[in-house]
Amino acid sequence: IFNNNVVNNDLDNKNMSNKHTHNENTPNKYLSKEFLLLSHCTEKTAVASAPALWQTLFASFGLKLKLEASGCCGMSGMFGHLKEKQELSKAIYALSFKRIIAKNKANITQVLATGYSCRTQIKRLDDIKVNHPISVLADIYQASN
Fold this sequence. Notes:
Layout: H1 4-11, H2 16-19, H3 28-31, E1 34-38, H4 41-46, H5 50-60, E2 64-67, H6 86-95, H7 97-103, E3 111-113, H8 116-126, H9 133-144
Parallel strand pairs: 1-2, 1-3
C-alpha cells in the first residue's frame, strides 16, 4: 500500500486531504474514537515510516490513530503454526502483543493490526478479532456513497 510514489507525492507533502474523503463525510461513530495501531513487524522493517503514514492517512479522514510500540506477534507467516515452534511463537506474542491486547480489551473494536499474521495470532491466542485499518476506511467510504 505504501510505495515510494505515494510516500513522496502524497503523504510527505500533506496533500492527502485534497484527494480523499474529508471528515465531513466521516460517520460520527468514528470521530469520537481513538484507534490503536499494531503494525506488522515486516511492514515496519520494509517501510519504517509505515505506522506514521497510516496515522497521516487516518488524520486525513478526521480520525485519531495512536501508534503503539509493539514487537513481533510471533506468527511470522507459517512459523507460529508449526507444532515444534508453537511454544516459542506464544512466548514471542507474550512479549508485547498479549500485554497490549489485555490493556485494550475494553475498547478492542478500536484496535487495528496491519498484518494478517498478527490478526490471526491475536484471534488464536486471545480469541479476539481485530481488523485491518483499511476496513475502517472502507466503511467510511461505503457510508459516504
